[in-house]
Specification:
204 residues; alpha+beta; elongated
Length: 204
């Protein structure tokens, strides 16, 4: 289904975003968008972003520039965007007797896939280490997640974290894979699940 046409101003921002993300591998801040568009106020940028989202060209959580993802023509050629950092960590075992080649194409074809850089060691027993990049798939309905699914979750007033997800009644428990960290238990409405873990990328 064709995407809805953009105005000249919206197309200008989209093209600039595509170039920025291709060069930097992460989405820009609102201030960087203002500078790129030669604007002194964030309001026009936020308006254009809302229209780009409404027309299906991007996904974006308003007020959080780093959550921006391209969905239009440029998205296919840019790879997976690194949107920011998430608190977690760990270690992954290595094996020398691998007999198969890993085909990651089906993973990369998932719609809306995004990446986060891991900071910290709270997920070390899940073999996710500080500095790893985790590939995440957007979550539309957290109530359908299997207990223990590893998710990136936005906790109101505290930021984003990578944890095992458990929904119990009206409460969410975010549990680390490290005994040094206590579970985070909050009312479900205070937790926004951004994505579920698809893969872990480690560059050596």
């Amino acid at each position: 289904m064709p995407l809805e046409a953009l105005t000249a101003a919206q197309q200008e921002l989209y093209d600039w975003l595509a170039e920025f993300i291709a060069d930097n591998r992460h989405s820009p801040s609102i201030r960087q968008m203002m500078q790129g568009m030669g604007l002194r106020s964030p309001a026009p940028i936020q308006s254009r972003l809302r229209h780009l989202q409404q027309k299906g060209w991007i996904t974006w959580q308003e007020g959080q520039a780093r959550t921006l993802q391209l969905l239009g023509d440029a998205a296919d050629s840019l790879g997976i965007p690194v949107l920011g950092a998430v608190a977690a960590g760990g270690l992954i075992e290595t094996f020398d007797d691998v007999q198969e080649h890993l085909d990651i194409a089906p993973t990369l074809e998932r719609r809306g896939l995004f990446a986060l850089t891991v900071n910290g060691d709270s997920m070390k027993d899940a073999h996710i280490a500080d500095g790893d990049v985790v590939l995440m798939e957007p979550v539309r309905d957290p109530s359908r997640l299997k207990p223990g699914t590893i998710v990136s979750a936005l906790v109101a007033g505290s930021g984003t974290t990578l944890k095992h997800f458990h929904l119990r009644g009206g409460e969410v428990s975010l549990e680390a894979a490290n005994p040094n960290y206590e579970p985070i238990t909050l009312p479900a409405e205070e937790v926004t699940v951004q994505g579920q873990l698809v893969a872990v990328w480690r560059q050596v």
